[in-house]
Records
---
Amino acid sequence: MNIWKYIYIKFYKCRRHIVGKTLGEEYTAMLFIASLDCLWYWGTITFIDGFLGYPLLPMHKYLYASLLIGGALIIEKLRKMTMCKEGLFEEMIKEVEEEPHEVVWNVLSIMYILCTFGYIILAILLWSNRLIPTLAI
């Protein structure tokens, strides 16, 4: 069991409870997990840009956009390959339902989601105010 599987199944169940049964529910739940991974990736790219002296966005807008979009597409493809395989979804549901420490996993999943949003907000705020220390390269 890992945090991504737990969030994946809980988001799937919550979305199904709110919206009802729809087409592509497994893929939609996987996109939520992939979007969390993309936020970590984008925050890291933002910090790297700051460490290098903020050269990417002002001077190389297309490179910056291609890094962000290309990374997001790669993350989506990797998550799709690992989480949307035939028969794997049923195994994950069974594994999550049999978990004896549900409260611990609920707290961990909420903490992970909050840390993800906190990380990206911190990266954007520090980058926009130019508070990330520049490495001397």
---
Amino acid sequence: MNKPQQLTFPWTKQNKFTFDDFFFDASNEEVKLALENNEDLFLYGSEDSGKSFLLQSTCNYYASDCKSSVYIPISEAIKHGTGFIDSIEGLDLICLDDIDLIASNNDWEVGIFNLINNCLTSNCRLIFSSCLNPSSINFKLEDLTSRIKKIDHIELYPISDANLPEAIKFVSQLRSINLGDKEINYLVTYTKRNMSDLVNIISKLDQLSMELKRKITIPLIKEII
């Protein structure tokens, strides 16, 4: 197989996600190190903890080193047959997001089991993600369960409440958005406390601020939330 930097599929969306754009709470410092090394990995954590962002960032990290990779969101890929995964083990990295979604799907369980075996032979690295601890996923294929459990796993923790203001400041500075301490504290107090929702709100605030030519203030935040 030729080795493009990243394979593309119908669900592929170009992005520039990088580790530098992700706020790593102190509890998640080991996650970045685990993603940057060359070992197979199972990353699990709550739905909005940023797993998809990190898997795509890892693909971009490999591409920056002229290595080939593919990001596969199972929620989209499962709508298709498994044929396309039969010959991708020649890549340097394969990231499979939300792998728990294949549980009880016989074709996909067999396909992923075969992929793991093929990657062991070809030295292609595999990274899986899930909202569930791998020991909690009820695959029907016992051999697949055994293979998955042998892979090192690490938990991605939500950002602690104490570090949310710092995380919001981090995101706003990345985007050159001017947010004062009062506005940051208001966001922490009156919005959902996960980075996915907060980033969306910050983006909407930035857009509305430019459209109205107004500074981001608490009244403007109230219009958004």
---
Amino acid sequence: MRPSHTYFSTSQTAQMLGLSVGTIQRMVATGVLQAYTTQGGHRRILASSVRDYCQAKGVPMSDFLPVSAGLCVVHDASMPTPVQQALGQMGHVLLVSHPLELAGLREDCAAFFMDAHVGWLDWPDLRRPMGLAPDARFIVYNSADLSPEQHQAVALHAQLWPGDISADLVAGFLLGIRGWQPPLAADTSHHH
């Protein structure tokens, strides 16, 4: 684990410790691991709590590979619960519904899926997420709901997806992320 990580998702913690998500949830419920719950209802387990658990159990920290939220999904309260649950079970997906949840994000986050309905993302230049992960790819979903002016401005920084997010969309992106090439900034004529 790298010190820049202040918390982990339930699935990331389960992956690091070689335990099931259910076991991690029980460990949080019984106080073995310290966590907080986001506005979206997701547990975020404090990295210090995971370190303390490993030290108490004699598990060397060097045994863990750095776990990254390879993909960050910024959403608002309207995201359907089944979609949140499906995305929450994906190992390298971090769900964010509040700006403070971006605080522990690693700089090597590969991509951001951002809901066009989220007002705190500093539209249209995406200053906040681009400042956190300058090398990430940016995908704005629900982009059909942007005004024509917002659409044009956001297209300079992000790939646009007119519809809502789904677990299949994210899974497909994760599968193809190594082969994906960002569009040229000057080419805004083709948007998906």
